[in-house]
Amino acid sequence: MASIIRVDQIAACEGQEVTVQGWVYNRTDKGKLVFLLVRDGSGFVQCVAFKGDLDAALFDRLVRLPQESSVIVTGPVRADKRAPGVPGGYEIGVKQIEIVQEAADDYPMALKEHGVDFALDHRHLWIRMPSQWAILRIRSTVIAAIREWFDTHGFINMDTPILTPAACEGTTTLFETPYFDEGLAYLAQSGQLYNEADIMAFGKVYCFGPTFRAEKSKTRRHLTEFWMVEPEIAFCDLDQLMEIEEQFVTHIVKRVLRERLPELKSLGRDITRLEKIEPPFPRISYDDAAKILQEAYDATDDPEKKELLKFEWGMDFGAPHETELTSRFDKPLLVYGYPTAVKAFYMEPWPGRPEVCKSVDLLAPEGYGEIIGGSERMSSHDLLLQRLHEHQLPEEAFKWYLDLRKYGSVPHSGFGMGVERTVAWLCGIEHIREAIAYPRTIKRVYP
Amino acid sequence: MASIIRVDQIAACEGQEVTVQGWVYNRTDKGKLVFLLVRDGSGFVQCVAFKGDLDAALFDRLVRLPQESSVIVTGPVRADKRAPGVPGGYEIGVKQIEIVQEAADDYPMALKEHGVDFALDHRHLWIRMPSQWAILRIRSTVIAAIREWFDTHGFINMDTPILTPAACEGTTTLFETPYFDEGLAYLAQSGQLYNEADIMAFGKVYCFGPTFRAEKSKTRRHLTEFWMVEPEIAFCDLDQLMEIEEQFVTHIVKRVLRERLPELKSLGRDITRLEKIEPPFPRISYDDAAKILQEAYDATDDPEKKELLKFEWGMDFGAPHETELTSRFDKPLLVYGYPTAVKAFYMEPWPGRPEVCKSVDLLAPEGYGEIIGGSERMSSHDLLLQRLHEHQLPEEAFKWYLDLRKYGSVPHSGFGMGVERTVAWLCGIEHIREAIAYPRTIKRVYP
């Protein structure tokens, strides 16, 4: 009996008789030959059926076989440079074929162009198309690479809760749910505060799970539900954090290049841009970034561009500012030392400059903008308490968080990286909704 | 300069001068000697300070140093079989010590017994204690082992959504949240239905994330938020599924034994029970399980036990039934072929016996009960539609799910494994609330 193989193993099976189980993605008829492009989840392979090799009735069914029909194909693997597919370069001569199910012939996502809303309504079928399949395979490798790096660098995976009590940063961007007799619970926007407790027990930790923001943003960079990895490290300052970010991001890029080159190529990604990602990454202060933006503003005569680049010290960066800054570098850019006023309450102040905090954002190249936000955290109990009051946050809800500064406070730092933004950058795609299987936006919670 | 090491690397550093950064877990004074048990997140190590080696004022502070104070200790590593700690067997002679922060001396979780509610109120500190630290380190290894097995067996990690539209199995056990102008969204109880769409694109997939059940259960086996891994496999029947479960569970047990032996021992776990876990696992049908329970009922004269064991064909198992069944085996027990009426609507009927379905539960030994529930899924469109109507489920909400049976339906199977139940079994602990960092129960959503 031929052994069942996966299409991504086909190069090792040349000359052997194999069985592939999958679905018909495309069919071309040429008289006595039928070419089936079969996908099995691991790849796409061309299967060639010759009329003389098969029972006449079966061949007749093949000629009319609808897209998405499920099949089990058996036959010899032959090298053929012209054979389409992913990885491509091999075909299977069909000796036997079992039609598991003949698909209905009204397949909604047939091989033609569809509008985005139609495609999203049929996301459960859209993911079968090569572009979406490639993106989500790359995503799974990004996730594996993230975990691999932390698991091999002494980090402990700690799952922080999704259902949380009183909110840390205002409730307007939180989803809420009634929680038995305990009032409302809120879906977590971050596991960071819990991570800060966890490092005091485990030294280095990361949480990695879904994150929720009920923001009414309709940009191509926002989802209401997205995945975020958040490492936190005891005895770590801002400089050490930036080194970790460089190593970590480089590791992800390299693993994706190693394992998902066919998928990147099938997406038309310019690989040379990714091959340049190596530590060290350029580092500039927020102050210097503000100067660069001022220079760019002065240098242009285009009034539209002037309007977009308008900036003054104290503002947070918008997308045009990030694009301007990153256009000057081939690698991700680390911008550190943001104004305290635009960042969260828990960041350590810059020594001697309380208006600046020890924060760092990592901006991806090619206009993809911020994919990581991080900082050194405040370690002083009294200053933290003062900040809570300044931000009018309820002290009682933060009692446990304050405890961390009473019982063995240490310098510590951490960051959060958004998975979908990272995947979108690596894949070179326009909108992050394609970087997750079932995107959730303010207008969509289906399927 | 001495290099900074982690305590779990100490055996490799014998004779070297090292630096350890951590917290004082315990202190014993013996005249001119102070013994500090220092934990750094990776382990616990004894550090011995001799009065003659240190500045007098510093030594004086050490003698009074409160538990949880953060310290940086430098000195030579010496082997000493009696030295306590995890892994233990080594101590550090203190040549230098920097007190990063002297902890407040009212540490709530000081080394004495506390009630469970008090401990849970201080979960952010409780996790620093050796037992909780050990359990959560084992948990992180269980998670890594789960992912390792799937990632090395051709599975693609697909993140299924938490925010979902109309519920699949009634809304009474669902958390709900207002979702912009879209009405209510519900927190997912399972990613399975999405996984079934995903396998038609990726062949073999798994999702792994938090899962929510608003059940009013107060048992030691229920949380409202828990982590579940759910693989789904195309072209896979019930027998193949049971083989996968055996291989998968064995892999987890073996990796935990290999990497977390000191932690298991510190918990007093009987390792020999875990060392017996090897495929094949015993398999019995539900019918045979019912007979075994009847025999056990007949064999006992104890009226209390009779009451607990009362059972008739068609019932689901309760905890006493599971305990009775698993007490006969050293390994996890696979029970297959449950009555259709006690299982979910999407399970494939047993050929020729529609009252039975192709389901399988994996029951852990030692009374830990069900940790995996799985089945072959229904592949017929028409039968699935009939089931939806029988269960009075809204056809419209399942339109996309029905599509999967129209466009290339294949035999397929999958299961869900609860992480906390698995960790509780491996650690030999009573209650699953200790198997997650911040447990959520019907009475608790803090900290």
Give an overview in words.
2 copies of one chain form a homodimer. The first copy, chain A, folds into 2 domains: 3-101, Nucleic acid-binding proteins (OB fold (Dihydrolipoamide Acetyltransferase, E2P), Beta Barrel); 124-282 and 329-435, Bira Bifunctional Protein, Domain 2 (BirA Bifunctional Protein, domain 2). The first copy, chain A, has 447 residues and is α+β, with helices and mostly antiparallel strands. The first copy, chain A, is elongated, with a radius of gyration of 26 Å. In chain A, α4 packs across α6 (238-259). The mean pLDDT of chain A is 96. In chain A, β17 and β18 form a beta hairpin. Chain A has helices at residues 56-63, 116-121, 123-126, 130-151, 192-202, 238-259, 261-266, 271-275, 286-299, 303-309, 319-326, 381-390, 399-403, 419-427; strands spanning 3-4, 17-30, 33-39, 44-50, 70-79, 85-86, 90-93, 96-101, 156-157, 163-164, 176-178, 184-187, 204-212, 225-234, 283-285, 333-336, 349-350, 353-357, 359-364, 369-377, 412-418. The first copy, chain A, is 31% helix and 26% strand. In chain A, the strands form 4 sheets. Chain A has an 8-stranded mixed sheet with strand order 9-13-14-21-20-19-16-15, with helices on both faces. Chain A has a 5-stranded mixed beta barrel with strand order 2-3-4-7-5. The first copy, chain A, has a 3-stranded antiparallel sheet with strand order 10-12-11, with no helix packed on it. Chain A has 14 helices and 21 strands. At the A-B interface, β2, α4, β9, β10 and β11 of A face β2, α4, β9, β10 and β11 of B.
